[in-house]
Design a protein that fits this description.
- The structure is a single chain.
- The protein has helices at residues 2-8, 112-141; strands spanning 29-30, 34-35, 40-43, 53-57, 65-70, 76-79, 85-93, 98-99, 103-107.
- The protein has 142 residues and is α+β, with helices and mostly antiparallel strands.
- Strands 2, 4, 5, 7, 8 and 9 form a six-stranded mixed sheet that branches.
- The radius of gyration is 22 Å and the shape is elongated.
- Mean pLDDT is 79; it is low at 1-25.
């Protein structure tokens, strides 16, 4: 699973500015507190702090760090491939042994029942559209 999460991590290119300004030096900010899609973006202000490692844990105290991501000279990272649950993230600066603030992100995927309902709705709309197009085509041919 860790390998899958590592492979699913999409590191974005350097950005020239953040969409949200950080209140404190290097403040870590999630794009959203909860995700039903299983992916989210974490942002921080690299110009105000030299964090080089992003750490992920399932508990807020970081007693067990489950995953680390190298993020040198970056200002954001998009993570995906997480199962349902709550995940905690913080940045670490190896040179000064400093940590950023801790942010929590909750992943709660939509239920399979909801997915099937949306698929069925799409299928019904497609059939309606197809029948309208076919009936209009037949009218023109007459």
């Amino acid at each position: 699973m860790k390998l899958l999460q590592s492979l699913c991590v999409i590191l974005l290119l350097f950005t020239s500015s953040l969409s949200k300004a950080a209140d404190s030096a290097g403040a870590l900010m999630p794009s959203e507190q909860s995700s039903s899609e299983g992916y989210y973006t974490l942002r921080w202000d690299y110009s105000r702090a030299n964090f080089s490692i992003l750490q992920m844990s399932r508990d807020q105290s970081f007693a067990a760090i489950e995953q680390t991501y190298p993020v040198p000279s970056m200002q954001q990272v998009t993570l995906s491939g997480y199962r349902d649950g709550q995940y905690f993230f913080r940045l670490f600066d190896e040179q000064s042994n400093r940590y950023s603030n801790v942010v929590a992100v909750t992943v709660q995927h939509r239920s399979l029942n909801t997915a099937f309902q949306l698929f069925a709705l799409g299928l019904v709309l497609f059939i309606i559209l197809l029948s309208i197009l076919l009936s209009q085509s037949r009218r023109r041919d007459r």
